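Much of our argument rests on the idea that a fold can be written as discrete symbols. In the encoding step, the backbone of a single protein was reduced to a row of integers, each denoting a local shape. We regard such an encoding as a compact summary of how the chain folds. The record that follows shows the chain in one-letter code together with its fold in token form:
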Amino acid sequence: MKKPYLRALALFAGLCACLLQLPAENIFFNGYGRTKLGVLISDGSVFLQENTFDTRFSWETGDTTLYANAIIYEENGQPPELNLRELYLQYFGEAFDIRIGKQQVIWGKSDALFITDLVSPKDLSRFLVPDFEELRLAVTGLRINVFAGNHQLDFVWLPLFTPGIQPQADSIWAPKMPFPVTPTFQPALMPELNLSSGEYFLRYGWLGSSVDFSLMGGWFWNDTPAFAVVGKTVTPGLGLTAIEVRKEYYRTGALGYALAATIGPLVLKSEGAYHIGTRYQGDVMTYPEGYTTKNAIQYSVGTDFPILGFNAGVQFVQDIIFDHEAAMVEDETTNMATVLLARSFARETVRLEALAYIGFAAPDALIKPQITWKIRDGMELAAGGWFFLGDSGTFGQYSENNSVFASAKISF
């Protein structure tokens, strides 16, 4: 049997060979190679050592595009893997376009948030460490855009469910479990593969001279599973001593809006989503299944503006759970803010940026500074870090994971 890296190279070569059979004058090819190294500050150990070869092919005619984004990825000395991130065929009409295949769907107006970005699931196996382009996963389905003047209608149908990617149990990014004892995990319960299990999304957008507004909704499978209790042991005098849980993906819905408006030097932004039938973990002695189902709302308000030569962005985010109960793990209201600062120097060859997530409850925070130096066209070096503040909360739970990184990238 061939080694994994040989299979990856063989598949990649096969994809290249197929695309090269198309007329050369209509083929476009670009991508990058990147190596990245991350080190924990606490003990100097290497937790991230990756090499990425990202290639993007497109074959274009007057009204049709065939697009493929293939990635060969090697991490921490493991055999390289081939990931076909996107592969779709798109047809452009006079008042509509149709895209079918594996694709990323990007909705929403906020920076570094996914409030109304309902369609594409996320890869959170390394929390928020990867670049945001790499966090979003592709989905397989049909997308139809219809245009009329300033109006746009976007319909997405996904016959195949694509779950989000969660950290492994032994990963340094594994979140704390919401149970009083260490659970035993049963195999996950996945949606059945049939037409009735499809996911549906619809977005209406209006674009004016200084205002961009959209409404969206969806009926879909929750990308992040809930933990359902399938067995527990209660010992007299000791209480709960053992528990069995199973990850379950479940149907849910959402209605949302996104708004961006330009007023002088300010860009005002807001988006929000009303979530229907979300499962929240709770006290297993109160909730036999380990969770309760509630409706909730999440929204953000923010602005982008220039200050002292920097481009700045500030956002306030709030989550509200309706009909909240004391036995739930999540708080009734959660408040967070994000701050983004960026500036380019030396004739746009050096870029300094910093992104911060600030949680108000714990309090806790994540600060992601980075400096990028473009040595020449197609070549750049970068360095930065991930710094977690606090002892608990969404970010503070990773306080032992403070780290720095360096990377080198060649684009072609």
